[in-house]
């Protein structure tokens, strides 16, 4: 049983266990936390399960990022001590790698539209103050310039490219033809995030032990946090796209960030494919849920269900004015669907999200686009 000494709070701007006026530690209290990262030798950043608060702890125990811990408070005071409670082999509480990854990345993620907006402002600020080397500035510029414009996603080819470059398929690309890897990942959102994050960390922590780290103001730290938040969002979507079992429908959840003039948005997509059951002639069943935030129009939602050549479409919004606009455009959409060679089944403007039929009930573990 290894004692762990809590040394100091992390992220002062957030509520931590050691700040006055917050929930105090109680002697004998049992806490659950996971190891977010190792800060230095025998010093770890822990994140509490449930409320996401963080603390820094020192321990001689061999801990690894992603590890879940049960901790007992054995000493109070200005330097509390926590004891790691060992887990027995039959405890049944061991978490899978996916569960551990979710605990690590879920608290860090932020909506990509929000990240891109803040990132552009921080990059402009860093450019005015010359706070970053030219190499990092070029990498940041490449990251934001690779984000497509809305008009690019309005074509089948552009949308396919946006899906491919969303980041959730990066590892699949890397596992493909080695001769095409360099070309396929140059515009990949996750690959660009990883490259920038690696260079930012190298800038703040030089390889030479005797060379002092360059000064990094709050702007640089905020840029790194935004990059990490965007990366956590992509990884969370990747984890949410893993099939729970071999017989489960294929499900992909993702966001495609895009620009619309000065406006920044991200198309939230949930794509599900369920192979036709029974007869070999049965058609595959596809369902797509979409969420957009057009400027001045509130939230717009769409659900499209395709079976064979028949498509059902349901559209709704959280604002009355946008709902009226949807109704006005339905016949235009019907004509365009016919022009694409599809037979239109339902094309229904709604005042609220549709009730799913049993056949539409495709599991979505992490994101609810109807909320």
Automatic annotation (TrEMBL):
Coiled-coil boundaries: none
Region called Disordered, residue ranges: 344-371
Residue ranges annotated for the Flagellar hook-length control protein-like C-terminal domain, each copy included: 280-348
Signal peptide: none
Family annotation (Pfam families): Flg_hook (PF02120)
Entry keyword set: Cell projection, Cilium, Flagellum
Official protein name in the record: Putative flagellar hook-length control protein
